[in-house]
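Feature request disguised as a bug report, sorry. It would help if multi-protein outputs had a clear separator. Right now it looks like this:
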Amino acid sequence: MVEIGISGGSTIRALILGFAAVLSLAAAAPAAAGRLIEPALRIADGGSQGPQVALTLDACSGLVDHRILDELIADGIPATIFVTGRWLKGNADAFRLMLAHPELFEIEDHGENHLPAVIGTERPYGLEPAGTAEAVAKEVLNGRADIARAGGGEVTWFRGATALYSPDAIELIASLGLRIAGFSLNGDLGASVGEKAALARMLTARDGDVIIAHINQPKRPAGAGVAEGIRQLKAHGFRFVRLRDATVSGG
């Protein structure tokens, strides 16, 4: 039995099968270079109903991109939103707007502080990792608790910062009862590309893709391309589904 402290003064007592072994492994051996995993995830093809994709949007920190959020609401586009505790603290109004549309938005766990779920010293894309099994568990569970306190309900999926994981962190997250949300199409490369590049990437979507993009960078041009890509995919006959409503492969 392991006790994991959760922010806000509460404590979750977790019986985790194999967790002690993960802790021992992490303590005994440093991370091997180049071992990080980027899990893939796809959904079932749309079949006779036409092509379908799952749009997943990360809210890491910062603000909310209303170019994307307003488009989703205006056109009734379902999406799975991965929020961090950091983002929730500064975007209460935007989160209330999401909660006001439960038919559209599935809220899932992106962690408490946007720390990569890496046990060891590797720094994916230069970001400081959680580092230890205990820190990964707290990142996951505190993020889940932050969502519950904000009214978002239970979560099923976790996506860590950078979407890269050490193998032992993947095992740990599974033992906490959450599935890891990978993807098959990166729509905006971390909101780092321009509007035209993001649009072009979005339009490469194929039946069954899980798209990742970002909804927290309103000042970057990528968001405009993502929003336009959503409009054009819908016009081309694509249906959008949330992860909770889809049959998935991987994760």
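(second protein starts here, but nothing in the output says so)
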Amino acid sequence: MFIQTEATPNPDVIKFLPGQAVLAQGTKQFVSEDEAKVSPLAEALFKIDGVSALFFGSDFLTVRRSPESSTIWAQLKPPILAAIMDFYTSGQPILRETEVKTETVYEGELGQIVAEIKDLLDTRVRPAVAQDGGDIEFDSFDMDSGTLYLHMRGACAGCPSSSATLRQGVESLMKHYVPEVLHIEAVL
């Protein structure tokens, strides 16, 4: 098994490409050992000193190094690669249980606007940020203020260039195609 690594715009995050599917659908972020209990791979990675967060995409995963850690990437990569390889050779499922997400249902004009926003996120925004090891997810839209709330995930969360991505990239795209969007805010 050959696992590729890629740098991301966030110096505390590296993208790992195992050459196999990671998640069949959606994405999953882990920011604590407690959250990692639903995934054997996440549990194994959190046992490595210096790992502070994980993000799983369709064919990649990102590992966040703790900013307080004195461990450098050259020291972290070998045990991370070993844990990924061990997981894939074990034949275990990536997630022990499937979460059922409940989504807010938007109706009428607001429903059409939210559908347009989600379509733009899925077709134009998410594929681009996935290349850098991250994701942007819809949270909510406030029609009265024209504010779109988004979650930054993976390498995008805490990245020095994430505010520029939101303002110059996502916000201008949304304003162009969905004139009801006036502002974008990142939800922590």
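Even a blank line would do. Unrelated, but nice: The mean pLDDT is 87.
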